[in-house]
Amino acid sequence: MAEETESTKTEPLKTAEEEFKKLEITEEEESELKLETSDHVTFMVEASIAMKFGAVQQYLEVSPAASASATAIPLHNVASRELILILEYYRMHDWVDAGERDLKEFDERFLKDLNYEELKELLLAANYLNVEKLFNFLTKSIANIIRNKDVEFVRTFFGIDNDYTPEEEAAYREENAWAGVKFV
Amino acid sequence: MKQWVVVALRRNLVMLVCDDLVIEILSWLPVKSLVRFMRASKSLNTFISDPSFVKLHRERSPDNGKLLIEYFTHFSTLFVSCPIPSILDNNIPSTIDKEQRQRLYFRSDYEIVGSCNGLVCLVFRQNFFWWVSYRASLWNPATRKIFGSHCWSMLLANFQSPMFGFGYDNLSDTYKVAAVLPLPSCGDSSSLESLVLRARAGESCWRCIQNFPANSTIFDFDGVYLRNNTLNWLGSTLGNSNPLFDITFDKLAIISLDLGNEKYSQLLLPRALYGLRIADFCFPNRPYDKPITIGVLKDYLSLFLQNRMTHNFSLWQMKEFGDQKSWTQLVNIGVPDLHLSDIWARVNLVPFCMFEDGHVVMIRNQHQYHWHAVFYRGRLTATERPKAAIGGGRRPIGGKEGEGRRSGKRGERRESKVKEGWDGEKVVMVGRRERRRGGMKRVRKGKEVEQVAATIEERKE
Going by DSSP bridges, is the β-strand pair A32-36/A73-74 parallel, antiparallel, or unpaired? Predict the structure, then answer.
């Protein structure tokens, strides 16, 4: 079951992927690195962007031969759709002509297209890849989302189990009434 | 098959958006949301109360510089936090503002040791016949939570009252509380026993370190924490036997404890002070008004002196830590020149922040409910006496705007200075604890606070 959903999910992506690669090929001034995602899609990424990924840097430190683009650098915890998003984000933020307003608009659109699950997966990918800018951006945006939500929402959002007894919870609520009972 | 494993793994990961990632996300939230989410689970609660999270959160929150003011009512203590810019305008919040104030009820007596990175170190004191137990705790005024452990207490004979110090050790990434016991360690009269506690969850208790290399009982104040990882006290290098009034400044030194390796070192006082008698700096019959104090201004160790004979207030700063030649006199003013309306001779000035252009703000605390900010606007050079005078304003707590010495225009200028000059330092300063004195009438609950304000009004008149 899970296998099916995953394969249907990746197929349209793969076509998008090919288009993406074609675009890549047109600008060939820069050296490129080969990245392989967890669902076995290989990406050719400009070295300038790929080197911003902490995970890639680390890999290249351990085995410098991989930069000769013959072997793909495996990214075990990143699926292709997340990598596409991450690359999209970094392309935009690296673009010299992008003004502050453009970036802000882009960021808003970028967030709008994602649902909570995707956001979390993207955060995990960003964490694995060790990309600081995107990671901070994502954590900040998630914080903004949950900021005014109630406890129940946070529990389901992070998958936290409630281990308080009802009495303890009531006591806690009373003690911290100043922090906003109206959300409870 | 392979794909399926990957998917399963990924689902697991999503469930595991815990610990580090959650902490990262939560660190961007305002305090109110955090306190609400602490209820989500016990583990989240411990994460949020952890001092290391407090530090991270503090670095990321835009708000900086708050003063914590302590008010005493009949049964409890009220704490009101107040942003420093509003202190500079003498706009100290009243205790009537219900949203802001925090009430603390402690069964035992407590003492505020110091504050660092937004955490306040409290020491609770409890008497058991001939013994007194001292228990250290960290209090976070923002979340109103107390963090502590039962191992953090020590039992001493009741004639010993230790000096404490609280700081953050950058090397080991922990908060440390230091205690210096007032009795000389056996045989050697010029050194005192000292202990250190690593304030960390699950961490052990107080442990002995190198002896405190001076006698400090005459000054008896809590250690001053500097960003260079040291805690500093003032002490005399003579033995215990010499009475305070006989010694001169060359027998004094600043004793500094390196929180990293827990070793003491001595810093000498400015050479210009050598030969002066300490007795000139004390009120003969008010020993608790400490005339010689040290503090931190703009991350430099500073020495504040108030001469009772010449009525001069002077401020020295050690520009290079550990170098005696780097002491510079920044302020030297006659207290009467400040035109303070009270009997200036009995006034205690406590400098508490300093701007890039050398302007100093001092707080004067006359008695229990009376606060004042005094702005020093003179040119601060070593020799020159200030030409420009002081702008002082007063506003008793809960009262209306008092007789400010500044015009509206000046007030505006000051506003901009606060923004430019504030060097980004985030400090929570704790109001110096005053002695409890009478004068409060017993009042019904709920009316208490208004009563405080009324009392102040009365006192003013």
Answer: parallel
Residue A143 within any structural domain of the chain: yes
Contact between chains at A140 and B28 (C-beta distance less than 8 A): yes
pLDDT reported for residue B290: 63
Tell if the pTM clears 0.80, that is, is over it: no
Put simply, the answer to whether B15 touches A159 (Cβ < 8 Å) is yes
What would the two tokens of residue B428 be? Answer: 């929570």
Q: Which residues pair with B331 in a beta bridge?
A: B315
- What part of A 41-70 touches B (C-beta under 8 Å)? none
pLDDT of residue B415: 26
Among A38, A121, A179, select the one facing B14 at the smallest CB separation: A121
pLDDT at A84: 86
Task: Please name which of B113, B111, B142, B114 lies closest in space to residue B124, comparing C-alpha atoms.
Answer: B111
Please list, in sequence order, all residues whose beta carbon lies within 8 angstroms of the beta carbon of residue B201, skipping any fewer than 6 positions away.
B46, B50, B147, B149
Q: Inter-chain contact B40–A3, Cβ cutoff 8 Å? A: no
- Rounded to the nearest angstrom, the minimum Cα separation between B146 and chain A is 13
Write down the pLDDT at residue B15.
47
CATH of the domain at A129: 3.30.710.10
Are B39 and A150 an interchain contact pair (Cβ–Cβ within 8 Å)?
Answer: no
- Tell me which chain A residues have a C-beta less than 8 angstroms from the C-beta of B145: none
Low-confidence ranges of chain B (pLDDT < 50): 1-16, 344, 366-369, 379-461
pLDDT tens column, A21-56: 555 544 445 677 778 888 888 888 887 887 788 888
Do β-strands B145-157 and B174-184 pair in parallel, antiparallel, or remain unpaired?
Answer: unpaired
Size of interface A-B (CB pairs under 8 A): 104
Q: Return d(Cα B461, Cα B455) in angstroms, integer.
A: 10
The reported pLDDT for the residue numbered B452 is: 31
Tally of domains within chain A: 1
Q: What residues make up the domain containing A119?
A: 32-152
Q: pLDDT under 50 in chain A at which residues?
A: 1-8, 25-28, 181-184
The residues, ordered by sequence, that sit 6+ positions from B270 with a Cβ below 8 Å of its Cβ are: B303, B316, B324, B327, B329
Report yes or no for ipTM above 0.85: no
State the best of B19, B39, B81 to mutate against chain A, taking most chain A CBs within 10 Å. Answer: B39
Is A94 within the bounds of a domain? Answer: yes
Asked whether residue A130 is domain-assigned, the answer is yes
Please indicate whether, in this complex, the C-beta atoms of B17 and A140 are within 8 angstroms of each other. Answer: no
